[in-house]
Design a protein that fits this description.
Elements (H helix, E strand, L loop, with lengths): L1 E6 L3 H16 L4 E5 H9 L7 H8 L5 H13 L8 E5 L1 E2 L8 E2 L2 E2 L1 E6 L2 E8 L4 H17 L9 H9 L4 E6 L1 H8 L11
Parallel strand pairs: 2-3
Antiparallel strand pairs: 1-9, 3-7, 4-6, 5-6, 7-8, 8-9
Helix pairs in contact: 2-4, 3-4, 5-6
């Protein structure tokens, strides 16, 4: 992974910087920006507020809203993204905020795709320690309800947030994926040492 954080930048500046890194491996590319809902509508004809019945019918199985949306996204949306350009997905639903801030009901995060593959996941970082701990606890409750083991909370992250983290953006980019695409390999196994 290549991971970095920037203070004193806005969304557009941070996105341009992130795309510039990808271009070091893949050459200059045009890009499109789609919201999460726009991508769902374009490739599935639904939005994130579709009923659980609709999601189950499309997925041909039962599950939670999050499970079904993730499955449908991975199978029916992702393969179309980044064909001949970078696709940048923004405005994720609140439920998919992960470590990002929420503004006007949407997660302030983005993902960059190329040739159907996610390259990077960027956030307007959540810097509020109490909200961060509540989200991590809630995620563990959801895991437990699904019969999964809870994930340990990172005390260093929470301590850092308590001391004060400046407003910033951060991203993690898959170095292995960039290298695979750069070398035109057909799988990650071909490029791993």
């Amino acid at each position: 992974m290549i991971e970095w954080y920037r203070i004193e930048v806005n969304f557009e500046e941070f996105l341009e910087e992130s795309l510039a890194l990808c271009s070091l491996f893949l050459g200059p590319q045009n890009h499109e920006i789609l919201t999460y809902d726009e991508a769902l509508k374009k490739y599935l004809g639904i939005d994130a507020k579709a009923s659980l019945t609709t999601l189950s019918t499309l997925a041909e199985r039962e599950g939670t809203r999050e499970e079904l949306l993730n499955m449908l996204w991975g199978c029916h949306v992702e393969p179309h993204l980044g064909q001949g350009l970078y696709s940048v997905i923004t405005a994720y639903p609140e439920e998919q905020a992960a470590l990002s801030q929420i503004k006007n009901g949407y997660a302030e995060r983005f993902e960059i795709y190329f040739k159907g593959m996610e390259l990077g996941n960027g956030y307007h970082e959540l810097t509020h320690p109490i909200e961060q701990k509540e989200r991590l606890d809630r995620a563990n409750e959801e895991r437990a309800a699904l019969g999964k083991e809870p994930l340990p909370l990172d005390p260093h992250l929470l301590q850092a947030l308590e001391k004060g983290l400046p407003d910033c953006y951060g991203i993690a980019v898959g170095f292995d994926r960039l290298l695979m695409l750069h070398l035109e390999a057909s799988s990650l196994q071909e490029i791993l040492p």
